[in-house]
Amino acid sequence: MNFDVIIIGAGPGGIFSAYELVQRRPDLKVAVFEAGHALHKRKCPIDGDKIKTCIGCKSCSIMNGFGGAGAFSDGKYNITNDFGGTLYEYIGKKQALDLMRYVDEINLKYGGEGTKLYSTNGTRFKTLCIQNDLHLLDASVRHLGTDINYIVLENLYVYLQDKVTFFFDTPVLSVKAVEDGYEILCEGNAYQSKHCIISVGRSGSKWMESVCRELDIHTKSNRVDIGVRVELPANVFAHLTDELYESKIVYRTEKYGDKVRTFCMNPKGAVVNENTNGIITVNGHSYEDPAKQTENTNFALLVAQHFSEPFKDSNGYGESIARLSNMLGGGVIVQRFGDLIRGRRSTTARINEAFITPTLNATPGDLSLVLPKRILDGIIEMIYALDKVAPGTANEDTLLYGVEVKFYNMEVEVDENLESKHKNLYIIGDGSGITHSLSHASASGVHVARNIAAR
Ligand SMILES: Cc1cc2nc3c(=O)[nH]c(=O)nc-3n(C[C@H](O)[C@H](O)[C@H](O)COP(=O)(O)OP(=O)(O)OC[C@H]3O[C@@H](n4cnc5c(N)ncnc54)[C@H](O)[C@@H]3O)c2cc1C
Asked: Which pTM value belongs to this model?
């Protein structure tokens, strides 16, 4: 065996597995294989000047590399079982929260000290929301911000680099069960270990499917969330974001009874492109540093689509809708809420006339040509509902970027140790379909590391 433990993927799941193994069993030989670059080499070529849109790099610096999809994220670590994944169904609610709090302590130790922990505890907004048929979910959220999140990752890497062997720009091609362990194949080389932790995130979802097929691991997949990213002047939501930072609000539509929710709120933030397997969708982030903040707040409005038999390809459905916006707009489409309601496309002139400056250079267009009616109706209803707790949300100039798709990895069959039916083969983080967030993915990494250390 070359190593005691091989970890595939250096996102939060992989990093926290490595960190906890080093804490508990410094004698173990641990290796991390990462398809993307080392942190300091991660740079998206879009500069808004010479390169305005995604050029489809071989390894996307936003999604891949040390830090994973979270490296340039807003660094919002939500400490809650109410959203962000279903880790608690495997390890119990208390254990899941304890692990998320432990991850928070480590983030503070490695550079996050001084950042704010927001909480919905005792907030008056819960009442205000319920009075308007909106539901505010409970959570504590540590907001590191994109800048501090990066510093924490830098510090964690400095700590780990001489204790763990890192292989960057090294996608793992396959995982094979061998006698007493696992063999992974990379271009030209094979490595063996007794334990293997797979933590390949959303970007590794297709690869994960092939591994599950080859190793006969049962999977299920039936959900995708589709919607838009809303951008409006920061003062419209300031009363909520100043107190809670992020408010996860759920609304049940009158028309269809569908649930629409706010997701990934970025006060004074920026809207960004996201490239998932060559499809351009939209996302958002914000900085802790006031110098880098904008005058706008952005958040997603998502409608969950659950499919039943015989349809299985929920992510394929989401991709097809995103492809439509890419086809019409060459990437992400932006539309003023007023134009959408009037049934006309937004044009560059109409966007320029608006009282808000978009933070993303997207193509003005018509989202009603992209989003299915049921989803669009739900989003419009939710915007009017939000307008009651944050007047100004339904203003003419509110910008809607589309499409935002939240892909869910197929859920992989694992037990309470996050171990697959193959002994010592663990599947964690977003790649397992069990987590969808920084805190849950990190917590799943700590959980498997402790289990391996105990064994
Ligand atoms: C722009 C953006 C903003 C976000 N903001 C937030 C936020 O504020 N709060 C929040 O909770 N969540 C946020 N998220 C989601 C969050 O980043 C993820 O939930 C989290 O990173 C999942 O961690 P992970 O370790 O499971 O996977 P990932 O972070 O996706 O890491 C997986 C890693 O595995 C590597 N990999 C994939 N396949 C292979 C292979 N075959 N061989 C080797 N390596 C491989 C990838 O390159 C990647 O680096 C955001 C995501 C994006 C894209």
From this structure: 0.85
